Every structure is written in C-alpha cells, then in structure tokens.
Amino acid sequence: MKIRTKILLVFAGLTISTILVMTGLVYYFANQHSFEDFYKRLEIRAYLAARATLPNYESDSAIYNEIREEHLEKLPAEKEYFLAVNNNTVSKNEQLSLPDTFYQQVIRESKATYREGDRFYEGVLYKSKQGVYIVIVSAINQYSIEYLAWLRKLLLICAVASSVILIGAGIFFSKYILKPIRQMMVQVKNISSRNLHLRLNVENSEDEITDLATTFNNMLDRLETAFETQNNFVSNASHELGTPLTAIIGEAELALNKERTPAHYVYSLQNILSEAERLEHITRSLLHLAQTGFDGKKQEWEDIRTDELLFNVKRTIDKMYPDNHVEIDYSLFPEEEEKLQISGNMQLLELALTNIVVNAIKYSDNKPVSIALAATEKKNIIIVKDMGIGIPQGDLPYIFSPFFRASNTSKFKGYGIGLPLAMNIVRMHKGDIIVHSEVDHGTEIRVELPL
Amino acid sequence: MKNILIPTDFSIRSLNYVHSIVAQHPGEKVNIIFMHALEMPDSLFDLVTYTRNSRHVELISNDFQDGCEIIRNKYSSAINQLKIEFFHGNTRVALRNFLLAQNIDLIIQPADQEFTPPSKRSYNPEKLLSKCSYPKMKIQLQRRKYVTDRSTISSLLLAE
C-alpha cells in the first residue's frame, strides 16, 4: 500500500471514528434524557389521576379533575388503570400484559417504570381510604419519537457530510505532505550511471526532507567517487601492468633484431628480468590486495599488543632503511598495558603499518617521521606523522583506491598499492584510517583500531 | 586530592594543560574538571525549555572525548577523575556557586588567550575567573612547530 493511502486512511479513520463516537454518544444521551422526562410526566399524571379518582374527600375529586382538564393536555393514547392490592396480591387487568416484576417493584419501591416498544408505563402505589391501589398510566411518547427521529437524521447527515469533507481534506493533506518526496523521486529517477554528477535540489529549510535530500546527495558523492575509482582502477591497472610488459617486449625485440655480443644479450636479459620482477611484484601485491579485500575469516586472529606492533614495525623499517629517522613517540602511551590489547592478525597489521610508515619516509625524503600510540576506552589510535610533500586536497578522496597516485608524486617510485592494502587490512579489523594532509607541510595518518 | 578547574572551548589544545598540571603535582592524585561556560538564553521560551546538560553535550566533539580518554589512560595513576562540566551563567555569584559546588582548589588560567567558541552561547570565562578569589595558576603552552591540523588528537603529542 502506498504511504499516501496509508496517511489518508489513518487520518480519515481517526477523525471519522471520533465523529462517529461523538454522534453515538449525543444520540444515546438525548434518548436517555427524553425517557426520564417522559416518565416524570407520566408519574405526575398517575398521582393526579389517583387523587381525582380515589379522593380523600368527595369534593377534592372535582378540583383535581378540573386541574387535569385545564392544565394537562392529553398525551397520545393515554390510558389509566387502577389495580387494587390486597395482601401483596394484585388483581390484574386483562388488557395489561405487564410482567410480575413490575408489580412487585411498585409494591416494594412505590413506583416503577416499564417500556413496551413506543408505549411507556409508569406505576405508582397509592394508599387511599378505599384501600391500596396501583395506579398505572401509560402513553405513547409521540413527541420524543419525533424529536429523536429528527435528531437521528441530523446526526446522520452531519456525520456523512463531515466524513466527505475529511476524506477530501485527507487526500489534500497526504498529497501536500508527500509532494517533496514525489519531487525527489522524480529527480532521483533521472540519475543513472551515466549522469552521476546530477544532484537533488536542496531547499533552504531545515526540515527532514531537506536532510533526506542532503543525505542522498552525500551518498551520490560517495557513489560518484567509487565509480570514478573503479574507472581509474582499470586504466591505472592496465597502465601499470602494461609499462613493464612494453619494456620487456621492447628490450627483447631490440636484442633480436640483429646479431649481438654476449655481453649485450646478458644486459638485455637482465633488463628483461628486472622488468619481469617488477611485474611479478605488482601482481603479487594485487593478489594480496584482492585477498585482504575478502572478509577476514581465513586469517588467524589473536590477541596482540599495539606497542609490540609498533616495535615490530620499527624493526622492519630499520632493516629496510638503515638510516631512517623514524621515532616512536611515547608521550601518549597509556600507563596500563591492558589498554593496548587488541585482537587482530599481527602479520597483516604489521604489513599495513609498515606500508604507511614506508610511504611517510619515501614521500618526505627521509625526513623525521613520528609514530605515536594512544588509547581511548574503545580503541587504540596510531598516529604516523611526516613532514613530506603532503597530499593535494583534491586527491584525498582517491588515495585509498588501487593504483591511484597523487598528482605531486611523479618523482617518487611507487605503484599505488600500499595505502589501499593498508586500508583493506584496517577495515578487516573494523578500524579506520583518517588522513589529514597539507601540501609541502606534511601528512598525518591516524589509524584507529577497536579494542 | 586537589580539584583543578580548566576552562575549555572543547579544542584539543585545552587538554594539553593536563600535561603541565600532572608535572607540577608529582606524587599526588588530582581531579580535573573541564569547565565550559555558556550564557543563559535570552528568550523566555528558551529559558523555559532550558535543560541542564542534554542539549550542550553535542558541543563536545568526538576528538575531544577521545582526547580525554587518552589523557586519562596516560596519567591513570595521577588523575583520579577527569570530567566535563557546563557552567551556565555569566555573573560572579553564579561562578562562585559553581566553584563551591565543584569544590575547586585551583583554577588554571591559559596564558595565551586563544578561544574559539564552539557555539553561539559559549564565551571565554577568562575575565570572570580572574576576578574570583580562588588560587590560580597561569600556564603557558610551549609554542609548537607546525601542526597539520590543530583540531586533531595529534596536537596532544608532546614531542618536537
């Protein structure tokens, strides 16, 4: 069911049911009240009739009859019955078909009411000189029947009319509420993989719909980046794999196109070998990247200590670059060592961190690099800071895509696999890498690993 | 145990005072209270719906929170408690009540007047603090070399 119909149904259901309940209550109480009123009138008539028919003094009878004639109009189909009571037994009238409980109630409480369709009965107990009597007056409640019928008609018309108005209002209301969403839908439908640069219009209000549009736009930003990354990957990968292949082919063709000295062949073969090794290195790192891209079920997980990880990395770096200036910054080390315990794969994390530190050394021409470690309650933070060439702002979104190399790195050798690999590994550990960088001042890479 | 108050604008910089505090209280446990001063609202509706903390908690950035935890872990034997309190108001009486309630022993006065209010109602309580009669300590942070981004945790690092 569409949300629009749902809103309409809920809105109409709520309001109409309120109106119906109100109508019902109005009718019920009006009905109730008109009964009571009518019974009161019957009661007065019963007492007057009793006084007139069974007077204490003969002279009273005439007065009462006069009052009745002059001041009380005859009710529709009004009838009076006088039933004598002897020792709690009532001498019944054949025309009356009243239940025994009615008579008993009259005797007990000295009055009772009874209803039979439109005919109402009121019985009162009257003690006179002639004996005890039950005086019953009955009449048809013509006035209130008409009144109630009129009320019923009125309420029915009102309920129907207001329902129609409410449903109309509901349709308008749901249309109005969902208008921005429908507009957004139309806009989103226009966006496909070919025109990912399109964005939704964001209005200048601070409501949820605007939030939604902004969220959509942010998602589109990320999608566009991912798409471009994918596109870049194919071109970069073919380029990276193609360069050594071209070199190998060129070298081989050059060696083969005429007879050469053995020294020349050796030289050529060495060139071919080094290019082939480069190719192998690239494919191996690619394989690594692909493997770490899967979820980390295969790897062995163990409890490792991040300070140990840092020392291992430092040791590896010392082997690779004996004259490095990598310092471990102890200023934020926590005092308690249990804060440094994380679960993960030591080899992989070492690989990731080594990649990051090697980058820091490489792109800063061996300037000092500091590795700091800090612990919060939920995660360990490793900060690698260099004073290198930095990463241009425009390149930052792409640095974690394979084979991407920032625009200012042309004089350094590299394939653009290190950072993506590190990111994959850190992601496997449910961590995150945050990069702050400024061109020519340095880069700060923050690796966050959850405890 | 001393209760030490540090005015803060929720920048990582203000966390750096903890380094010098710990250095100057060797062998003693301290409670550190970061105070953020907020003006009371002007409009009646804002006053009526004003709650003590909930709405201002979002002023505390994640990095500041992380930084607090890092500091607490680093000095876990020197710092007993490290908490963030909001001070609502801008009068001396209100401040006196606040200091009394928090049982403050020492107020840190940043020597450099760097203060970037994180919200419209935040203000630098420096003037108010200098007027009160509590013992105070001025701390000068050493000038740093270039820091790539002042708002990140790395500006907590002591090295360089």
End-to-end Cα distance of chain B, whole Å, is 32 Å
The chain-level mean pLDDT of chain B equals 82
> At CATH's second level, what is the architecture of chain B?
3-Layer(aba) Sandwich
Shape of chain B: globular
CATH top level of chain B is Alpha Beta
> What is the CATH third-level topology name of the largest domain in chain A?
Heat Shock Protein 90
List the strand order in the largest sheet of chain B. 3-2-1-4-5
Organism (chain B): Chitinophaga terrae
Protein name (chain B): Universal stress protein
GO cellular component, one term (chain A): plasma membrane
Protein name (chain A): histidine kinase
What distinguishing features does this structure have?
heterodimer; A: 451 residues; Helix Hairpins; Heat Shock Protein 90; five-stranded mixed β-sheet; B: 160 residues; alpha/beta; five-stranded parallel β-sheet; globular
Task: Summarize the structure in words.
The complex is a heterodimer of chains A (451) and B (160). Helices cover 55% and strands 17% of the residues of chain A. With 451 residues, chain A is α+β, with helices and mostly antiparallel strands. Chain B has 160 residues and is an alpha/beta fold. Chain B has one domain: 3-Layer(aba) Sandwich (Rossmann fold), CATH 3.40.50. Chain B contains six helices and five strands, in the order E-H-H-E-H-H-E-H-E-H-E. In chain B, strand 4, helix 6 and strand 5 form a beta-alpha-beta unit. The longest helix of chain B is centred in the middle third of the chain and has 13 residues. About 3% of the residues of chain B have low confidence. The interface between A and B is medium-sized, with 29 and 19 residues.
